[in-house]
From TrEMBL:
<keyword id="KW-0732">Signal</keyword>
<dbReference type="Pfam" id="PF03009">
    <property type="entry name" value="GDPD"/>
</dbReference>
<protein>
    <recommendedName>
        <fullName>GP-PDE domain-containing protein</fullName>
    </recommendedName>
</protein>
<feature type="signal peptide">
    <location>
        <begin position="1"/>
        <end position="16"/>
    </location>
</feature>
<feature type="domain" description="GP-PDE">
    <location>
        <begin position="28"/>
        <end position="308"/>
    </location>
</feature>
<dbReference type="InterPro" id="IPR030395">
    <property type="entry name" value="GP_PDE_dom"/>
</dbReference>
<dbReference type="InterPro" id="IPR017946">
    <property type="entry name" value="PLC-like_Pdiesterase_TIM-brl"/>
</dbReference>
């Protein structure tokens, strides 16, 4: 099932832009998680506009496939009622209405784009800027907006927790860069965490036995496992599931990192990069920077950039032109009626 859903997306990726070595490799990879959901409504064109204004190097986003085969920029498998609102049925007596709560895979593009996904501010991100009536965009619509908003080169990286999808990517489009997302809870059969888990691989890591690779720690072995199928990067969770409840960053008792110096060093020895997620606290910023990671995925790209600027010594991508971004957003962002 995953392969069948992935193929239309890969076709879009392949036709969108040629993959080449990116001139932005010289910049510290500041990734706006879901467009920067701590600051703007996630996975919408306004959020990606804000990311460009913040000078990010990567607009991190998610895709789902609609019932009629369109790649829609959205993270969740379903339409979360805390993020989107119904505005009305696409046609009279539509049996799928209301659409909120339904799975993307069971809705058509017309049904999905009838939703208002820009009006609701999440309780967990009280500083989010809302843009009422904003519709979800398709992947080609996002590409069109970015092409309008900046002349800087844009390169696609496919990252996924499901390593089966990454392996399929390499088969279908071998030059597409891939990043192996992982957490200590995704590596082993039955889940678990860094300190307590069953033996044997989980389906999420394509049945690859992480512990069959050399290394004194799981952190080293998981890098070698990702390298075994050609992943260009590894994107581990910054906080291990084994951390004590409420231990959110390195300053707190009971906090355990899944990212270690051994992980970073092993990746660099193999020619891979390390770009952890989702770092949202400055104590964690400092911890990861000190380890020498190559980038960070964060909900607060503006704050992380300011932090890097204060530290000094980091090459950061240029900020986008506000006037141009505003004009392109006005042109491309679609609103519900």
């Amino acid at each position: 099932m995953y392969a069948a859903a992935l193929l239309p997306l890969l076709a879009i990726l392949a036709s969108a832009t040629p993959v080449k070595r990116w001139s932005y490799e010289k910049y510290y990879d500041l990734q706006a998680h879901r467009g920067g959901r701590g600051e703007t409504i996630e996975n919408t064109l306004p959020s990606f506009a804000q990311g460009l204004l913040n000078g990010v190097t990567t607009l991190e986003l998610d895709c789902g496939i609609t019932k009629d085969g369109h790649a829609v920029v959205w993270h969740d498998e379903n339409i979360d009622p805390t993020k989107c609102k119904d505005t009305g049925a696409v046609f009279d007596n539509d049996p799928m209405f209301p659409y909120v709560g339904k799975y993307i895979a069971n809705l058509t593009l017309a049904q999905v784009q009838s939703l208002d996904c820009g009006s609701l501010r999440l309780d967990g991100f009280p500083l989010q800027e809302i843009v009422p009536k904003t519709r979800l965009a398709t992947l080609p619509e996002l590409f069109d907006f970015v092409k309008c908003a900046t002349d800087e080169p844009v390169l696609i990286t496919h990252q996924s927790f499901d390593w089966r999808a990454l392996i399929k990517s390499k088969e279908v489009y071998p030059e597409l860069r891939t990043s192996a997302l992982c957490a200590d809870s995704t590596l082993y059969k039955g889940g678990g965490n860094l300190t307590s888990h069953q033996r044997g691989p989980s389906g999420m890591v394509a049945g690859i036995d992480v512990d069959s690779f050399p290394g004194d720690t799981v952190c080293e072995r998981v890098v070698r496992a990702a390298h075994s199928f050609g992943a260009d990067y590894i994107s581990p969770t910054e906080t291990a599931a084994a951390s004590a409840a409420g231990a959110l960053d390195p300053s707190m008792d009971g906090w355990i990192s899944f990212v270690s110096k051994e992980m970073v060093d092993t990746a660099h020895e193999l020619g891979m990069g390390v770009k952890p997620w989702t770092a949202n606290r400055k104590n964690t910023f400092d911890y990861l920077i000190d380890l020498g990671v190559d980038g960070v995925i964060t909900d607060f790209p503006h704050e992380f950039r300011r932090h890097l600027e204060h530290l000094g010594g980091y090459d950061l991508a240029p900020l986008a032109d506000p006037s141009r971004v505003a004009k392109c957003l006005a042109k491309h962002n679609q609103l519900t009626s």
